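can u pls check wat happens w/ LLP
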Amino acid sequence: MGDLGVLPDHLAPHTAAVDALGELIIGGMRVSELVRQYGSPLFIYDENHLRTRMREATEGFGGGRVIYASKAFPSVAMARLISEEGLWWDAASQGELEAGLRGGVQPKRVILHGNNKSFDELRMAIDAKVGRIVVDSFDEIDRLDYLGGSASVWLRITPGIEAHTHAYVRTGQQDSKFGFNLANGDAHRAIARVKASSHLMLSGLHCHIGSQVFALGSFRDAIDVMVTLAKDEGVEELCIGGGFGVGYLRDERVPTIGEWTSWLREAFVAHGMRDQQTFIEPGRAIVAAAAVTVYTVGVIKEIPGVRTYVAVDGGMSDNPRPVLYGSGYEAFTSSRLFDPHDMTVALVGKHCESGDVLVREARLPTDLQVGELVMTPVTGAYGYAMGSNYNKLPRPAVVLVGHGQARLIARRETIDDLFRLEVDG
Ligand code: LLP
């Protein structure tokens, strides 16, 4: 990796390097060159980083199965990497399912999630012969009965574990829209119903306690509860979901995905589970740090004694996480990483909202200029995926870089694209 100047190693994509002048290079490509070619703002994904994370996850988890939670970044190019690296694909909608299949993931390695799957989604999954359907409600069992096709299912259980994370991304507690409640007997009733079905095969149980979780203890508690239930019910497979936290900030040191997966494997083994019975579903821990978003500075507004605002050409439409969850990010210039970054500013977007803040207290060079490139690292998960066209802003382009080459995997939206749904356009 070499000396990255002010960019901390743990926030940088794997192949990040900085040249003698302080310019960031990813996958052998100069960031300024990429922006010249593909425009700004730009998402840059490091292919080597993605593949390395996938391999660390599968190696750490032994012979257990690693399912990529595609919602974090559900692109066809990503599905291709997932299938090449032998992971499975978790889809939570028809669109995510289609992305996996278009990317060449074998249907038997696709699992379908969702707390309100439509008839169409269920029919598509049955027709495509996806590996598992993760059933979330009694209404869904009714729908599957009505459709009648055979399917291998897991039941999503709400194990009553309070994961320590943001309330919006907490899912394992009693009061949840997801899964069958264990404490009130719904889980047992659902298990009995599926066992009695002639066309559904109950092959496993699933739970997901939340996202951006750091406490290994929360996962251990979930494994304890779920293994006991699986053994009592004679169910073979167990998926403990995803949610392994990643670091976004300079002082945030967190376990690697290799560490997460080997700890989880140990916890399963301690309960006598065999590798082939166990599954995990990481999303963020695979893609988050693989990408940076590069913006161009358009306005520097100093309000003496109050604050300096640095406005860039994107914002909450390409990264809604700060607005939604109060998530923190860091920002750096991408062209002079050896210069001190000691001016504290608010890095804001170009949307018509005061809340459109990307980094509340970003540290950038004191002589920052309009026109310079600024990047936010660790934007690979739930950024592009949750992006919008708010204020009729076109979505940025996405490139995948590696070995000195860049491949455009999502082109920038045009102004015409913004009107393609409008009947009167
Ligand atoms: N499995 C299931 C059933 C899930 O619902 C999720 C995430 C995952 C796996 C993957 O979780 P991960 O490993 O990525 O944490 N938009 C929020 C995160 C929402 C997560 C939803 N479910 C954010 O930007 O923080």
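The domain at 9-46+289-418 is CATH 2.40.37.10 (Lyase, Ornithine Decarboxylase; Chain A, domain 1).
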